[in-house]
Amino acid sequence: MSREPIILVLDQGTTSTRAIAYDSGFAEIAVHAEPVAQHYPAPGRVEHDALDIWRGARTCLREVGETAGARRRVDALGITNQRETTIIWDRQSGRPIHNAIVWQDRRTGDQCARLKAEGLEARIQEKTGLLLDPYFSATKIAWILDHVSGARARAERGELCFGTVDSWLLWQLTGGEVHASDATNASRTLLMNIATGTWDPELLDWFDIPEALLGRITDCRGDLGVCSEAFTGARVPILAMAGDQQAASFAQACFAPGDTKATFGTGCFVMANTGKKKVMSKNRLLSTIATQFEGRRTYALEGSIFMAGAIVQWLRDQLGILDDAAASEAMARAADPHSGVVLVPAFTGLGAPHWKADARAIIAGLTRGAGAGEIVRAALEAVGFQTRDLMRALKADLAAAGVAQPKRLRVDGGMARNDWVLQFLADQIAIPVERSAAIETTALGAGLMAGLEAGVCGSLDEIAARWRGSGVFEPSMSAEERDGRYGAWGDAVAMLTRPAGDGAAGQARVPRRST
């Protein structure tokens, strides 16, 4: 009697850690989640306790491993994770020397500005595909080395390890035997040359990072190590590892150039496959590694929005105008569509394509008639407007590079459950929006990669055939109304992006009433 395989995935995100067990058809058979606390030691600073991340991961694996292992043996483990978040730990004890600095953190804005002033951004972008921004890991590493007593000297002696969350988890799962980062995560550090697939000596010099801190760069799937039986009840091979957005793109079957997905979680991340072509953006998007299998890299263009689902959390937790996130849809539908209220959610700066680290959120167009519903609607509209910003830049870059234009946008993540958001999104980007049947695709993507390596999946074609949608949202708004609303958004963003001393941008334009 044949035994059905089980694929176990550890999905470590910004607000929670989950473990999921999948059967051979990639249906979920066990899930456990643990919350992740965020710490805000000063304005613009966001941290995690890396040991809390590890404790939560261990609990999730134990709970799901016991449930799944009671039925069948676990065949493979995959890892997917929040990217750019930076951890430095002691090579002997495995203990972090400082809290993890989260991808949202903006404390290194001055260092990025200094490097730009030295004229390095264009050369850094050519090597890494990235822009100089506090979002990425390199300046976070330097900050820790410069602010923890003795850290820089210890790093130079090889006593410390750096890793993004994938590397941290791999180290812990293997009992300190493996110090490595997969290519998708390494490509987000500002230290990897994405053409050669290696750590770049010139980048290390510019950011003043000792090479002894770094682990090796691996493929996204392969023999990455063995998870100790202490965490899963048996020794399990770790066969896949990828950053969350690359894993989601894989699960959304974005395998051909021009295939595009958007994941709406804490932030929003739009990613378009560019195949073997490394496209250098002329519109302040990012060129990044989508996958690396057997040393062969596939590239993507990506735009990152820092605040998507996090805006709804703010409405609920700070303003108290939502009882729960699900209530936002009904409030948006009931709100006055012509109120003219515009919310620009630059709580931690503006991401792509603006990249203004010091921007802060504003609400424009308020009148006495505006209430909680209008603010909620403006917050949800901001997700659509920000995504349109990204799609405009993305289409221009793809056209210039001769890469196929996206015919549709596949979406996943918590906000993708909101029909109102997806319809407004389709109206703004003027192409169909397809919602994935699997709303949480980051873990699924890592599971599918591990399944390929374990022989559970036969090919990319087989994975593409597995993809299922749960609704298509067709554009229905008139071009006049669509552009009028987007113009008001642009006016509000201009208040934040106008150079200092250039005067006020004036009140945001009120969208024209549709007739």
Walk me through what this model shows.
- This protein is an alpha+beta fold and 515 residues long.
- The protein has a domain at 309-388 and 478-497: ATPase, nucleotide binding domain (Nucleotidyltransferase, domain 5, 2-Layer Sandwich), CATH 3.30.420.
- The protein has helices at residues 50-69, 109-117, 121-128, 137-147, 151-156, 165-173, 183-186, 201-207, 229-232, 244-251, 309-319, 327-334, 372-401, 419-429, 442-454, 460-466, 479-497, and strands at residues 6-12, 16-22, 28-35, 47-48, 74-81, 87-90, 100-101, 160-163, 180-182, 192-193, 198-199, 216-218, 221-227, 236-243, 260-264, 268-275, 286-293, 296-305, 342-344, 362-364, 409-412, 433-436, 469-473.
- Strand 21 (409-412), helix 14 and strand 22 form a beta-alpha-beta unit.
- The chain is globular.
- It starts with 5 loop residues before the first strand and ends in an 18-residue tail after the last helix.
